[in-house]
Write a structure and sequence with these properties.
This protein has about 130 residues and is mainly alpha-helical. The chain has one domain: de novo design (two linked rop proteins) (Up-down Bundle). It is built from 5 helices and no strands. The protein is elongated.
Length: about 130
């Protein structure tokens, strides 16, 4: 491995993965609520976005190079933004209270910021090495 782990042996050891996993589990709990669960297409899309965050972190880690890991982290970060938009829509449609939406959005932003910081860390000169 080219350094993608930076000390972590498994993607499960990464703080950013652990936070993304918490986000996905909380989103699943939220989407089981009666009001929101009735909009099945929105629920499925929200779940896909949340799962995409942690899936891309794990996939990128397993790819074995910092370059591919950074690419996957950018995709995960984009999925955080997608999920925030869907949470706002669910709030607009009356499926979530302002407090529920604000809590989930804050958590999405926290995960997104963690991903951004990890990308910066991996892109430091000692991190991302040129591909042969």
């Amino acid at each position: 491995m080219e350094g993608a782990s930076r000390g972590a042996k498994f993607f499960e050891d990464l703080h950013v993965f652990q936070e993304a996993r918490k986000l996905a589990n909380q989103l699943y709990d939220l989407t089981r609520q009666k009001a929101l669960s009735q909009d099945r297409p929105l629920v499925l899309q929200m779940r896909r976005a949340a799962v995409s965050v942690l899936s891309n972190i794990s996939e990128g880690f397993e790819r074995g190079t910092d370059r591919e890991f950074v690419h996957a982290l950018f995709i995960a970060k984009g999925s955080c933004g997608e999920l925030r938009a869907q949470i706002l829509l669910a709030k607009d449609q009356g499926f979530l209270s302002s407090e529920q939406a604000e809590g989930m959005i804050a958590q999405c932003r926290q995960v997104s910021a963690g991903i951004a910081n990890f990308i910066k860390y991996l892109r430091r000169p000692s991190g991302l090495k040129k591909q042969a």
